[in-house]
Amino acid sequence: MHPKLEKVLQETDQRNPGEPEFLQALTEVIESLDPIIERHPEYADYGLLERLTEPERQIIFRVPWVNDKGEVQVNRGYRVEFNSALGPYKGGLRFHKSVNRNIIKFLGFEQIFKNALTNQGIGGGKGGSDFDPHGKSDNEVMLFCQSFMTELYRHIGHMTDVPAGDIGVGGREIGYLFGQYKRLTGVHESGVLTGKGLGWGGSLVRTEATGYGQVMFAQFMAEDRGESLEGRTCTVSGSGNVAIYAIEKAQQMGAKPVTCSDSNGWVYDKDGIDLDLLKEIKEVKRGRVADYAAARPSAEFHETGNVWSVPCDVALPSATQNEINEEDAKTLVKNGCKYVAEGANMPSTPQAIDVFQGAGDVSYAPGKAANAGGVGVSALEMEQNASRDKWTFEYTEKKLHDMMKGIHDDCLATAEEYGKPKDYVYGANITGFRRVADAMLAHGVV
Ligand code: NDP
Ligand code: 2IT
């Protein structure tokens, strides 16, 4: 590796103790920059790499609220504004008990390159809280969101920082967050958040965008090999926003998704997932995948193990980070899996990625490329808000399709250009890096 890259890795390691996921995300990107730094040493100059790996701003705040029993609860809120070279910070908010600064920094770092890949003029950021929405009443979720926004509102804006959803933050939470922002500022500033309701500034296709885009990406990888997803068995993890719409798009393409999961277990449905039933249980009743299995004779529920033990052609991880380890990857490859398209952020460990890439006939798409459709359509939502326009479903989905095709083709072209043909990891990291780095060099040392 180029000595400058080694030095940056060592220094970031020392400066960010106790932040393994952040260092994991960072190491993957830095390691893939070798070919571009060799050819363009200016990218290792001007403190560019040192600046790129240090967030522009990290905001941590107290979020006090009162639960239904009248007890005071205290959570911690985060917003990491990582890089604004290409546009306002953009990225979701995650509400999950595992959230800490390390998790938000890893997600914010990934977001920089993902957002660059969309070509939509958006910088990278991420936020969230260790608030656990499971088992909370609507009232408690509302009070939490209001308290969270009471601190966050001073840092965000449609030209500065535009949050959206992620794990534990969907339409309901964005509604409460937007309401409180509007109340505090006295301004109906549609473009300050994305993932809004369709009646008050939301965009058609935003709900579907991440899962749809992920499966479109898998389809483009298949087409590049002269194949398609039709008739293919897919394993999907998760049962939230991304997983549900990955299943929907896979079914539209004639594939057969047979699994889903949540933190209590996973389901194998030999007849293929019944999407209406899954949506009813997850989106309407806020239930568990165990309820799905109980209502569906062809489905089995498992409390132990995971969906990656089920033989498949296409794996669509759509739950969380590091959910595919080396053993899982070996099992997938042994069972004949040919395509991996990540809907979640960093779902495969570095060892799992090595297994996929070493297998020879697995096309592996990292999250920052394959799940970019979500933030991509968020940018389209911002565009509609700015122009006070509303686009049709078909028009917006076509834009998503073209954006995903563009990302796919850019990744392949860059990988080829830098001597790593068909390597979507190099392709995604170098394409994203080059766009951000060029803007940072133009802006001087800031
Ligand atoms: P949701 O909250 O809608 O769903 C998350 C799903 O993953 C749930 O089924 C949840 O189960 C499961 N899950 C979450 N954490 C864990 C865990 N630690 N162990 C086991 N299961 C877990 O989130 P999304 O669908 O929006 O997000 C899923 C992934 O996609 C995340 O990695 C997110 O960062 C990424 N992503 C999301 C985008 C979006 O637009 N929403 C865009 C790009 C990426 P349970 O309910 O039991 O917690
Ligand atoms: O990880 C992601 O890209 C998201 N959670 C979506 C971010 C967004 O701003 O729409």
Describe the protein.
The protein is α/β, with parallel strands linked by helices and about 450 residues long. Helices cover about 50% and strands about 15% of the residues. It starts with a helix and ends with a helix. The mean pLDDT is about 100. Keywords: NAD, Nucleotide-binding, Oxidoreductase.
Give the secondary structure arrangement, pairings included:
Elements: H1 3-15, H2 20-31, H3 34-39, H4 48-52, E1 57-66, E2 72-83, E3 89-95, H5 101-118, E4 123-129, H6 138-152, E5 161-164, H7 171-185, H8 206-224, E6 233-236, H9 241-252, E7 256-257, E8 259-262, E9 265-269, H10 275-284, H11 289-294, E10 299-302, E11 314-316, H12 326-334, E12 339-341, H13 350-358, E13 363-365, H14 367-370, H15 372-387, H16 393-417, H17 424-443
The structure holds NADPH dihydro-nicotinamide-adenine-dinucleotide phosphate (NDP) and (2Z)-2-iminopentanedioic acid (2IT).
NADPH dihydro-nicotinamide-adenine-dinucleotide phosphate binds next to helix 9.
Q: Which labels suit this protein?
A:
5-stranded parallel sheet, nucleotide-binding, alpha/beta, globular, binds (2Z)-2-iminopentanedioic acid, binds NADPH dihydro-nicotinamide-adenine-dinucleotide phosphate, glutamate dehydrogenase (NADP+) activity, 446 residues, Rossmann fold, 2 domains, Glutamate dehydrogenase, single chain, 5-stranded mixed sheet
Judged by helices, strands and strand pairing, the structural class is alpha/beta
Low-confidence stretches: none
Biggest sheet: strands, sense, closure?
5 strands, mixed
Tertiary shape: globular
Subunit structure: Homohexamer.
Binding site for substrate: 90, 111, 114, 165, 378
Organism: Mobiluncus porci
Binding site for NAD(+): 210, 241
